[in-house]
Amino acid sequence: MAVIPPFFFSFSFFSLSLLSSLTGGAIAPPHGRRWAPSQRPARSSPAATAHLPNCCTVEKTWGREKGRMGFSCTNLEVRIVDIDISNKQIFQVYHGPRNVRYGPTGVDMSEFIVSERGIDRPAERSVPSIKGWLMRGLRVDPQTSDITINVIVSRATEGFYWELMPVQNSRVWRWYVENALQRGWPLTMVPFVHPKDPGVQMNMDDGEGPSAEVNETSVEEVNAREDGGVVALVGIQPGGVADEGETVGAIVDEMEREDSDNERVEEGDSSDDETDINLAEWASEDFFGLVVSEEDSVRWEYKENEVIQGAIYTRAEDMKEAVKHFLVSLRRDFWVAKSNWLQYEVRCVKEKDGCPWRVHAYKGKWKDYWTVSVVTKHTCFLPGVQKYHRNITCAFVASEMYAHVIDNLTYEPRSIMRHIEETYKYTISYAKAWRAKQKIIEMRFGTYEASYDNLPCLLGVIEERNPGSSYAVKKFPSIEHPGKSVLQRVFLALHACKMAFVNCRPVLCIDGTFLTGKYRGQILTAIGVDGNNQVLPLAFAFVESENTDSWYWFLKLVKTKVIGMRPNVYLIHDRHAGILRAIEELQFGSMERGYLGEWKDVQSRWCMHHMGADFFKQFKNKELMNIFKRLCNQNQEKKFNELWKRLDELCHTLKFFPKPKLKL
């Protein structure tokens, strides 16, 4: 006679009419579903037994707390059992840097480290509290990493095919716990550690779930308990099949409701209430001996350039890179036969010659990972020694060298060429190595175009986060791209620096220098000096070049945004022609350009450093340079006039008698 699967209902559901209907034949699950035997150890004793015709026996048990009722039936007896989902349940936690593989019965976790942990009242837990408990146990830093919880379920209609299902919210978790106990699934958790997204915070102490003592419980201890709760289901063999069809309508309706809830839960919806039942905090003790290596930054990682059947990857990009590295290490060429959001397939370039080699990967329904389903072998001959490989592209080199370049931005293209040759025995050109380095920098820091495009938004955020700061942007319409603008100039002055200038000397040092990069340009700066002779950056601007117009635009903003009404400010500069003309227009205006005199009391002074460089270039005499330095540092008028007179005489003498032996 066929084996009857366990179904779970309230006690009131089991009326005498239902029990009498069971005597006429077996009950089959909907759609020919097969059920696994419960793997929970017996922990209760029978409380009452009622004999029925045809040698069917009903057995009823009760736990310490109110639970759910269920029944099972064999050819000899029907046993009604109380499945207690409120007390402590034993979970198997699979962890460690191992590979997830798939076999004939589904997911294979044999390579993982498994630890058993008891959880009180698991159905009342929330996903944040489960994550917090796992992160404490695995000693994962919540500031840099996060945990994704997966469980093992079977959706097969014939037999069992175990699959990983991500637990996205508390409703999915409660659905899993209840269905695992009802359908005999093993209670498992598979936590995967991955880098945390920027801006996401993990609340470790969420105050959810009942007060619990999470500790290590051995299977022997569980087997020894007989204080009520979960009872082993009698007479159910692995792989048993119920073949009599649906004969009880109420049971069929219940199973259809469970299937409907299953679909809604997987889609993020559920008939269960999202509100947690209890608010007490979890215990904070760690797992004993359950430590994940700091290298586990992804779910699982294949570190030896190997792609095997059943390999799983979290992202399509990771899967594609693994395939490329695998084939380059085999010294084979390939071409992409299929690539979309659900499938990816590559084939040998010698497919027309009869080579059947291919690698096929897919992203299954309800899955958030990619699985390699087909990996065949090459039958073509391995080509002779070749200098270049068609699939070692710039993107491939960038992926290979990313960590090296980011750790050392001065990493040279020739070092990249040497690394590829030593690792893969292929040669790449200097230009490809250089482009790969530029691509790595763009991957890490973004492109030049994106930086220019984001600059106005960045300045707006700086002004918002630093009230009182000032910025200005000047742009003009693009001729090549109508509707878009070209960034010409940018000005920025922070509020804290502007306020600090009130207590500084009324002196500004202004200068400009060139920018390196794809689009060049110039940077103009205005620097102040405080009472301790410390420099204070007041304002800066990015402009197209150093000219009269750009200097006038910059100094006008310095006057209006930084100086304000402060009188008699001195500008020290290198006598650049654009600066001299801009200061003159600020003082007296320009009828030709239509400028008004907007900074009439500004004072212009020459920079000693730049003047000294020109002085030494003219005379090339160290003794004269020493007098010049003493002159510039003199703060007494009498001594200043004496040094000036002597320097003038020596320079006049040196003009007619070059490089004499001077006595200072």
TrEMBL record:
<protein>
    <submittedName>
        <fullName>Transposon protein, putative, mutator sub-class</fullName>
    </submittedName>
</protein>
<dbReference type="Pfam" id="PF09322">
    <property type="entry name" value="DUF1979"/>
</dbReference>
<dbReference type="InterPro" id="IPR018289">
    <property type="entry name" value="MULE_transposase_dom"/>
</dbReference>
<feature type="region of interest" description="Disordered">
    <location>
        <begin position="255"/>
        <end position="274"/>
    </location>
</feature>
<feature type="signal peptide">
    <location>
        <begin position="1"/>
        <end position="28"/>
    </location>
</feature>
<dbReference type="InterPro" id="IPR004332">
    <property type="entry name" value="Transposase_MuDR"/>
</dbReference>
<keyword id="KW-0732">Signal</keyword>
<dbReference type="Pfam" id="PF10551">
    <property type="entry name" value="MULE"/>
</dbReference>
<dbReference type="Pfam" id="PF03108">
    <property type="entry name" value="DBD_Tnp_Mut"/>
</dbReference>
<feature type="domain" description="MULE transposase">
    <location>
        <begin position="507"/>
        <end position="611"/>
    </location>
</feature>
<feature type="region of interest" description="Disordered">
    <location>
        <begin position="30"/>
        <end position="49"/>
    </location>
</feature>
<dbReference type="InterPro" id="IPR015401">
    <property type="entry name" value="Transposase_MuDR_N"/>
</dbReference>
<feature type="domain" description="Transposase MuDR N-terminal">
    <location>
        <begin position="86"/>
        <end position="142"/>
    </location>
</feature>
<feature type="domain" description="Transposase MuDR plant">
    <location>
        <begin position="310"/>
        <end position="364"/>
    </location>
</feature>
